[in-house]
Amino acid sequence: MSSPRRFFWRSAIATIGASALCLWPAATTASAHVEATSGDAVRGGVALVSFQVPNESTTGAATTTLTVDLTNVSAVRTEAEPGWTADLDRDGSSGPVRSVTWTAAPNGGIGVGEFGVFRISAKLPDADTVSFPATQTYADGTVVKWDQPSTAGQAEPEHPAPTLVIAGGAPSHTQHTVQPTATATPAAPGRPAADNTARVLAGAALLLAAVGIGAALIGRRT
Domain 32-190 is of which CATH architecture? Predict the structure, then answer.
């Protein structure tokens, strides 16, 4: 192999190795969390809030129960979700809602590698954010509490509480009609693992293309 070719391939291999080391943490450290999203969240307004729930079981167990704390919102209504029942826990027979628990039908639930989406209609507080601490229970008895607060400028905790960012502006007094749906589409922020995988594949493709072009150019010159 001629000297220019040898130098090129050594440089290319070193570049690919360094790029892989840089991209690898992004693909391996990201994990899916229970997330709260909304397309119409306004301070003090009524909004549809979606909770995206991934199954991260290492034993193959399905997610069968999700409980969400609703003490930070009011006027709560739940969306009918096929295969699940929703129970509102109130402060007294007609008092404010404290939490909601979705329970899967027998032999149902969210399987490994899947996610579920649950929605509520609620009046949001007059604040910048609202937190929804949640508890996820698996069929094998495993319980995961998503209740750790996140602090700006610090690393994200292992089990952060689902937190919704609320936009400013005049409150919306529109009453949302929650319709039963067979499936639900998650919001874009709920795909960290897939996004990182796409970045890795795209970066690898670009590096391989560069190597091929460089090899062709050196082959013509030598």
Answer: Sandwich (2.60)
